[in-house]
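Reply to dn_fold:

You asked what the input looked like. This is it:
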Amino acid sequence: MTDNASSDITLLNQLAAGREEAFTQLYLRYSPTIYNALMVYIKDEHQADDLLQNVFVRLWEKRGELTAIQSLENYLFILARNLVLNHIKRKAIEENVHQVLRSRLPESADSTENRMLEVEYKRLLREAIDALPPQQKQVYLMATDASMTYDEMAVNMELSKLTIKKHLELARKSIRAHINARLHGYVALPFLLAPGVLWHV
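and this is what came back:
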């Protein structure tokens, strides 16, 4: 067994007990490698960073199930691969929606439709942000409006970086769910009417 593998087992046991120090060590050990792998497929620094944070948020969420893992590095690569596949599928669906909308509407109607969608999206986004729990809302606004880093937010709110990451991920999930649930029918109807197109929820 390599030194890293032996150390991983120790850290995973500590992680299962909820020790954030163990999580930080694992993050520092593996995040550069996982980030580089993500960049091979995503080629966008911001999106790759978001996916990287999601990988480690899921590691924390599943910490109680990880003590039997043979290779943490392989496990993290599998997590990253699944997130990349979901990201690519979601982007493909979004692009198909816009292509069908453009092809089925006259140019003037398409412009009007886009403006209506933009106005509705912004309204739903404000509504979703206002509905967040206070700390999630604060973290989300600091990340998006103030463009603060995880370190800056952690200092500002006197919380750990891990807690900040979890708040931000939960906020984003909640906002996506809120918007998708309400905007889905508005966007999907013309898409569903397109010949030969199936909508997968």
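Helices lie at 3-16, 20-42, 45-61, 72-104, 107-130, 134-144, 150-157, 161-193.
Hope that clears it up.
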